[in-house]
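Deliverable D5.2: sample structural annotation.
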Amino acid sequence: MKSHPPRRLPGLAVIAVTVTLLLAGCAGPLPERGPGTKVAASFYPLEYVSQRVAGDHAEVVNLTSPGFEPHDAELTVRQTADVAGADLVVYEKGLQPAVDAAVEQNGPERVIDVTDVVDLEPLGAHEAQEEHGSDSNVDPHFWLDPLRMVKVADAVRRQLSELDPEHAADYSRNFDALREDLEKVDQAYRQGLADCDRHTVVVSHDAFGYLGKYGLHFESVSGLSPEAEPSPAHLAELAKLIREEHITTVFSEALASPAMADTLARDLGLKTAVLDPIEGLSNATAHEDYLSLMRANLEALRAANGCP
Protein backbone atom coordinates (compact mmCIF):
# COMPACT_ATOMS: atom_id res chain seq x y z
CA MET A 1 0.00 0.00 0.00
CA LYS A 2 1.40 3.32 -1.09
CA SER A 3 0.48 6.44 0.82
CA HIS A 4 0.21 9.82 -0.82
CA PRO A 5 -0.22 13.10 1.05
CA PRO A 6 -3.79 14.33 0.72
CA ARG A 7 -4.16 16.81 -2.10
CA ARG A 8 -7.23 18.73 -3.14
CA LEU A 9 -7.98 20.92 -6.12
CA PRO A 10 -7.08 24.52 -5.29
CA GLY A 11 -9.83 27.10 -5.41
CA LEU A 12 -9.20 28.33 -8.95
CA ALA A 13 -9.05 24.77 -10.24
CA VAL A 14 -12.39 23.96 -8.62
CA ILE A 15 -13.91 27.02 -10.29
CA ALA A 16 -12.47 25.96 -13.63
CA VAL A 17 -13.84 22.45 -13.26
CA THR A 18 -17.28 23.77 -12.30
CA VAL A 19 -17.34 26.10 -15.33
CA THR A 20 -16.33 23.20 -17.56
CA LEU A 21 -19.21 21.13 -16.26
CA LEU A 22 -21.70 23.96 -16.73
CA LEU A 23 -20.52 24.49 -20.28
CA ALA A 24 -20.85 20.78 -20.92
CA GLY A 25 -24.57 21.09 -20.20
CA CYS A 26 -25.57 17.52 -19.49
CA ALA A 27 -22.45 16.70 -17.49
CA GLY A 28 -24.14 17.71 -14.22
CA PRO A 29 -22.60 18.97 -10.99
CA LEU A 30 -19.59 17.50 -9.31
CA PRO A 31 -20.48 14.46 -7.16
CA GLU A 32 -20.91 15.45 -3.53
CA ARG A 33 -18.93 13.77 -0.82
CA GLY A 34 -21.32 11.53 1.13
CA PRO A 35 -21.13 10.71 4.83
CA GLY A 36 -20.02 7.09 4.32
CA THR A 37 -16.78 5.50 3.13
CA LYS A 38 -16.10 5.89 -0.58
CA VAL A 39 -13.80 3.61 -2.62
CA ALA A 40 -12.68 4.34 -6.19
CA ALA A 41 -11.58 1.23 -8.10
CA SER A 42 -9.81 1.74 -11.40
CA PHE A 43 -11.42 -1.11 -13.39
CA TYR A 44 -13.87 -3.98 -13.02
CA PRO A 45 -11.88 -6.77 -11.26
CA LEU A 46 -10.77 -4.28 -8.62
CA GLU A 47 -14.31 -2.95 -8.32
CA TYR A 48 -15.59 -6.51 -7.85
CA VAL A 49 -13.12 -7.30 -5.07
CA SER A 50 -13.67 -3.97 -3.35
CA GLN A 51 -17.46 -4.31 -3.45
CA ARG A 52 -17.41 -7.88 -2.14
CA VAL A 53 -15.25 -6.85 0.82
CA ALA A 54 -17.06 -3.56 1.48
CA GLY A 55 -20.57 -5.01 1.36
CA ASP A 56 -23.11 -2.37 2.39
CA HIS A 57 -20.66 -0.28 4.38
CA ALA A 58 -18.98 1.62 1.53
CA GLU A 59 -19.78 3.09 -1.86
CA VAL A 60 -17.57 1.64 -4.60
CA VAL A 61 -17.23 3.45 -7.94
CA ASN A 62 -15.57 2.12 -11.10
CA LEU A 63 -13.27 4.56 -12.90
CA THR A 64 -13.53 2.66 -16.21
CA SER A 65 -16.80 3.15 -18.08
CA PRO A 66 -18.68 -0.05 -19.03
CA GLY A 67 -17.77 -1.43 -22.44
CA PHE A 68 -14.29 0.10 -22.49
CA GLU A 69 -11.00 -1.72 -22.04
CA PRO A 70 -8.97 -0.50 -19.05
CA HIS A 71 -5.93 0.12 -21.30
CA ASP A 72 -7.90 2.80 -23.19
CA ALA A 73 -9.52 4.53 -20.22
CA GLU A 74 -9.65 8.34 -20.16
CA LEU A 75 -11.20 9.84 -17.05
CA THR A 76 -14.12 12.22 -17.27
CA VAL A 77 -14.25 15.25 -15.00
CA ARG A 78 -16.71 13.38 -12.80
CA GLN A 79 -14.41 10.35 -12.54
CA THR A 80 -11.46 12.60 -11.68
CA ALA A 81 -13.60 14.08 -8.93
CA ASP A 82 -14.37 10.53 -7.74
CA VAL A 83 -10.62 10.01 -7.23
CA ALA A 84 -10.27 13.29 -5.32
CA GLY A 85 -13.32 12.56 -3.17
CA ALA A 86 -12.51 8.94 -2.33
CA ASP A 87 -11.33 7.68 1.03
CA LEU A 88 -9.49 4.84 -0.71
CA VAL A 89 -8.34 4.29 -4.31
CA VAL A 90 -7.58 0.78 -5.56
CA TYR A 91 -5.68 0.76 -8.85
CA GLU A 92 -2.90 -0.90 -10.83
CA LYS A 93 -0.09 1.54 -11.49
CA GLY A 94 1.15 1.41 -15.07
CA LEU A 95 -2.03 0.00 -16.59
CA GLN A 96 -4.03 3.22 -16.96
CA PRO A 97 -1.98 6.42 -17.33
CA ALA A 98 -5.04 8.62 -16.80
CA VAL A 99 -5.74 6.98 -13.45
CA ASP A 100 -2.06 7.18 -12.48
CA ALA A 101 -2.10 10.94 -13.14
CA ALA A 102 -5.33 11.50 -11.19
CA VAL A 103 -4.02 9.57 -8.18
CA GLU A 104 -0.71 11.42 -8.27
CA GLN A 105 -2.34 14.84 -8.54
CA ASN A 106 -5.45 14.53 -6.36
CA GLY A 107 -5.52 11.07 -4.80
CA PRO A 108 -6.43 10.48 -1.15
CA GLU A 109 -4.02 9.51 1.60
CA ARG A 110 -5.00 5.84 1.37
CA VAL A 111 -4.11 4.20 -1.94
CA ILE A 112 -3.70 0.53 -2.80
CA ASP A 113 -1.45 0.02 -5.81
CA VAL A 114 -1.99 -3.68 -6.48
CA THR A 115 1.49 -4.01 -7.99
CA ASP A 116 2.69 -3.69 -4.38
CA VAL A 117 0.37 -6.52 -3.33
CA VAL A 118 0.74 -9.18 -6.04
CA ASP A 119 3.73 -10.46 -8.00
CA LEU A 120 3.37 -9.72 -11.72
CA GLU A 121 4.69 -12.09 -14.37
CA PRO A 122 7.01 -11.00 -17.21
CA LEU A 123 5.50 -10.12 -20.56
CA GLY A 124 5.10 -12.93 -23.09
CA ALA A 125 7.39 -13.49 -26.02
CA HIS A 126 5.20 -11.61 -28.53
CA GLU A 127 4.50 -8.62 -26.31
CA ALA A 128 6.21 -5.27 -26.79
CA GLN A 129 6.43 -2.64 -24.08
CA GLU A 130 5.17 0.10 -26.37
CA GLU A 131 1.99 -1.91 -27.01
CA HIS A 132 1.15 -1.67 -23.33
CA GLY A 133 1.52 2.09 -23.36
CA SER A 134 3.97 2.22 -20.46
CA ASP A 135 7.55 1.41 -19.61
CA SER A 136 6.45 -1.74 -17.78
CA ASN A 137 7.87 -5.13 -18.74
CA VAL A 138 5.27 -7.17 -16.83
CA ASP A 139 1.93 -8.69 -17.75
CA PRO A 140 -0.77 -6.63 -15.99
CA HIS A 141 -3.60 -9.21 -16.23
CA PHE A 142 -2.99 -10.71 -12.77
CA TRP A 143 -6.71 -10.94 -11.96
CA LEU A 144 -7.07 -14.10 -14.06
CA ASP A 145 -5.29 -15.86 -11.18
CA PRO A 146 -7.93 -16.16 -8.42
CA LEU A 147 -5.32 -16.55 -5.69
CA ARG A 148 -3.72 -13.24 -6.62
CA MET A 149 -7.18 -11.72 -6.29
CA VAL A 150 -7.29 -13.07 -2.72
CA LYS A 151 -4.21 -10.97 -1.90
CA VAL A 152 -5.84 -7.84 -3.29
CA ALA A 153 -9.01 -8.55 -1.34
CA ASP A 154 -7.02 -8.87 1.87
CA ALA A 155 -5.34 -5.51 1.23
CA VAL A 156 -8.77 -3.92 0.75
CA ARG A 157 -9.99 -5.54 3.97
CA ARG A 158 -7.09 -4.10 5.95
CA GLN A 159 -7.57 -0.59 4.59
CA LEU A 160 -11.34 -0.54 5.09
CA SER A 161 -10.95 -1.88 8.61
CA GLU A 162 -8.60 0.98 9.45
CA LEU A 163 -10.87 3.56 7.81
CA ASP A 164 -14.03 2.19 9.44
CA PRO A 165 -13.09 0.12 12.51
CA GLU A 166 -16.74 -0.06 13.60
CA HIS A 167 -17.42 -2.49 10.75
CA ALA A 168 -14.06 -4.31 10.74
CA ALA A 169 -15.68 -7.62 11.70
CA ASP A 170 -18.04 -7.38 8.71
CA TYR A 171 -15.15 -6.64 6.37
CA SER A 172 -13.36 -9.72 7.68
CA ARG A 173 -16.44 -11.90 7.19
CA ASN A 174 -16.93 -10.57 3.67
CA PHE A 175 -13.29 -11.23 2.88
CA ASP A 176 -13.50 -14.79 4.17
CA ALA A 177 -16.54 -15.49 1.97
CA LEU A 178 -14.79 -14.02 -1.09
CA ARG A 179 -11.60 -15.94 -0.38
CA GLU A 180 -13.59 -19.18 -0.25
CA ASP A 181 -15.24 -18.38 -3.60
CA LEU A 182 -11.91 -17.57 -5.24
CA GLU A 183 -10.21 -20.67 -3.86
CA LYS A 184 -13.06 -22.80 -5.25
CA VAL A 185 -12.52 -21.30 -8.72
CA ASP A 186 -8.80 -21.99 -8.48
CA GLN A 187 -9.48 -25.60 -7.53
CA ALA A 188 -12.01 -25.98 -10.37
CA TYR A 189 -9.35 -24.88 -12.87
CA ARG A 190 -6.78 -27.26 -11.41
CA GLN A 191 -9.13 -30.20 -11.63
CA GLY A 192 -10.87 -29.26 -14.87
CA LEU A 193 -7.67 -28.76 -16.88
CA ALA A 194 -5.60 -31.56 -15.36
CA ASP A 195 -6.06 -34.18 -18.09
CA CYS A 196 -6.69 -32.57 -21.49
CA ASP A 197 -5.84 -33.70 -25.01
CA ARG A 198 -4.26 -30.33 -25.78
CA HIS A 199 -2.62 -27.63 -23.69
CA THR A 200 -1.98 -24.91 -26.29
CA VAL A 201 -4.62 -22.19 -26.69
CA VAL A 202 -4.78 -19.61 -29.51
CA VAL A 203 -6.24 -16.26 -28.41
CA SER A 204 -6.73 -12.92 -30.09
CA HIS A 205 -4.42 -11.02 -27.72
CA ASP A 206 -1.96 -11.94 -25.01
CA ALA A 207 -4.08 -11.43 -21.91
CA PHE A 208 -4.23 -14.94 -20.47
CA GLY A 209 -0.70 -15.74 -19.37
CA TYR A 210 -1.67 -16.08 -15.70
CA LEU A 211 -3.76 -19.13 -16.61
CA GLY A 212 -0.49 -20.84 -17.49
CA LYS A 213 -0.30 -22.02 -13.87
CA TYR A 214 -2.93 -24.59 -14.83
CA GLY A 215 -0.74 -26.21 -17.46
CA LEU A 216 -1.87 -24.12 -20.44
CA HIS A 217 0.28 -22.40 -23.05
CA PHE A 218 -1.17 -19.39 -24.85
CA GLU A 219 -0.31 -18.15 -28.33
CA SER A 220 -1.80 -14.81 -29.36
CA VAL A 221 -2.69 -13.48 -32.78
CA SER A 222 -1.87 -9.84 -32.01
CA GLY A 223 0.31 -9.68 -28.88
CA LEU A 224 -0.65 -7.62 -25.83
CA SER A 225 -2.64 -4.98 -27.72
CA PRO A 226 -5.97 -6.23 -29.12
CA GLU A 227 -5.68 -3.80 -32.05
CA ALA A 228 -2.08 -4.59 -33.09
CA GLU A 229 -1.68 -6.02 -36.59
CA PRO A 230 0.21 -9.33 -36.61
CA SER A 231 3.01 -9.75 -39.14
CA PRO A 232 2.67 -12.27 -42.00
CA ALA A 233 5.59 -14.21 -40.51
CA HIS A 234 3.86 -14.49 -37.14
CA LEU A 235 0.62 -15.65 -38.77
CA ALA A 236 2.54 -18.30 -40.72
CA GLU A 237 4.19 -19.56 -37.53
CA LEU A 238 0.82 -19.62 -35.80
CA ALA A 239 -0.78 -21.60 -38.63
CA LYS A 240 2.03 -24.14 -38.46
CA LEU A 241 1.61 -24.50 -34.69
CA ILE A 242 -2.14 -24.96 -35.06
CA ARG A 243 -1.64 -27.83 -37.49
CA GLU A 244 1.07 -29.49 -35.41
CA GLU A 245 -0.88 -29.22 -32.14
CA HIS A 246 -4.23 -30.19 -33.73
CA ILE A 247 -5.82 -27.05 -32.32
CA THR A 248 -9.54 -26.83 -33.00
CA THR A 249 -10.50 -23.35 -31.77
CA VAL A 250 -9.40 -19.73 -32.03
CA PHE A 251 -10.64 -17.50 -29.21
CA SER A 252 -11.79 -13.91 -29.58
CA GLU A 253 -12.84 -11.60 -26.72
CA ALA A 254 -15.86 -9.76 -25.36
CA LEU A 255 -14.55 -6.16 -25.52
CA ALA A 256 -12.34 -6.39 -28.62
CA SER A 257 -13.05 -6.88 -32.31
CA PRO A 258 -13.15 -10.59 -33.30
CA ALA A 259 -12.07 -9.81 -36.88
CA MET A 260 -8.52 -11.18 -36.76
CA ALA A 261 -9.46 -14.30 -34.82
CA ASP A 262 -12.40 -14.96 -37.14
CA THR A 263 -10.23 -14.53 -40.24
CA LEU A 264 -7.58 -16.92 -38.95
CA ALA A 265 -10.19 -19.50 -37.97
CA ARG A 266 -11.94 -19.24 -41.33
CA ASP A 267 -8.70 -19.59 -43.29
CA LEU A 268 -7.72 -22.72 -41.34
CA GLY A 269 -11.17 -24.25 -40.98
CA LEU A 270 -11.28 -23.88 -37.20
CA LYS A 271 -14.03 -23.14 -34.72
CA THR A 272 -14.31 -19.80 -32.93
CA ALA A 273 -15.26 -19.17 -29.32
CA VAL A 274 -15.07 -16.36 -26.78
CA LEU A 275 -12.59 -16.22 -23.90
CA ASP A 276 -13.21 -13.24 -21.66
CA PRO A 277 -10.16 -11.47 -20.16
CA ILE A 278 -12.61 -10.02 -17.58
CA GLU A 279 -11.23 -6.53 -17.95
CA GLY A 280 -14.75 -5.14 -17.76
CA LEU A 281 -18.40 -5.92 -18.32
CA SER A 282 -20.27 -5.23 -21.55
CA ASN A 283 -23.95 -5.13 -22.48
CA ALA A 284 -23.75 -8.85 -23.18
CA THR A 285 -22.16 -9.68 -19.82
CA ALA A 286 -23.85 -7.09 -17.60
CA HIS A 287 -25.69 -9.89 -15.77
CA GLU A 288 -22.43 -11.76 -15.05
CA ASP A 289 -19.72 -11.24 -12.46
CA TYR A 290 -16.07 -12.19 -12.03
CA LEU A 291 -16.85 -15.67 -10.71
CA SER A 292 -19.35 -16.60 -13.42
CA LEU A 293 -17.06 -15.31 -16.17
CA MET A 294 -14.14 -17.32 -14.80
CA ARG A 295 -16.32 -20.44 -14.78
CA ALA A 296 -17.50 -19.73 -18.34
CA ASN A 297 -13.86 -19.38 -19.44
CA LEU A 298 -13.04 -22.72 -17.84
CA GLU A 299 -15.82 -24.50 -19.71
CA ALA A 300 -14.74 -22.90 -23.00
CA LEU A 301 -11.15 -24.02 -22.45
CA ARG A 302 -12.23 -27.55 -21.55
CA ALA A 303 -14.34 -27.82 -24.72
CA ALA A 304 -11.56 -26.52 -26.96
CA ASN A 305 -8.79 -28.61 -25.43
CA GLY A 306 -10.59 -31.95 -25.21
CA CYS A 307 -10.71 -32.15 -21.42
CA PRO A 308 -12.76 -35.04 -19.96
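Annotation notes: Strands lie at 2-3, 37-41, 58-62, 88-91, 110-113, 200-203, 217-220, 249-252, 271-274. The radius of gyration is 21 Å.
The annotation will be released with the project's public dataset once the embargo ends.
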